[in-house]
TrEMBL record:
The chain crosses the membrane at residues 6-22, 43-69, 75-94, 125-143, 155-182. It comes from Brevibacillus parabrevis. The keyword Transmembrane applies. It holds the Pfam family RDD. The keyword Methyltransferase does not apply. It is a multi-pass membrane protein. Keywords: Membrane, Transmembrane, Transmembrane helix. It is found in: Membrane. This is RDD domain-containing protein.
Amino acid sequence: MLNSTGALAGYWIGPIILALFPSKKTLLAKKAKIESSRLVPPLSQLLAVWVDYFLIQAVWLVTIGLFSSNDVMELVYTTVGFLVVYFILPLLWGGQTVGTRLLRFKLAGPQGEVPSWRALLKRAFALYLPWGLSTFFGILNRVEIDMDSALYPIHVWMTVVLFVCMAIMVAVLCLHVLLVLLKKGERTFYFDAAADIVPSKK
């Protein structure tokens, strides 16, 4: 009788104890659910980057761009713009840029902390590099050299090499973006991965 009573009491009390002390599997599943709920969709991440870039270009167009079309000046101005928008602003705003604020997420470290200045600088440089290279290529491509000049063959070969490099870079970036979009947030973009930064919902 005592054994039966103990078994019946254990049957009733067991679910309560299991609820108070969930299994490791349950805890891991709950953790995965919480982490997935904090994932920022890749499309939102891309839109935030484009919003920030559009802001840089818009400020250029309504200021110096109204009075000058100098390629070198635009290169310098946009370089400073990248530094301000992608590095200084998130450094001052605790991991947020204008774009991330509009899309309602922030940039965080691996443990959810505010990113260090080194991480933000790496991210800004990773974002700037493709634009900087493509702009520099465009400036070189627009340089006019007389066909009789000794520098003309060098200019032609340099243009071809840069064009091939740019084509490869664009193809790799497009493939990378496609893979990240297909993974739906399970894989981060190269600029965040290089800086060890995790886009996270507020």
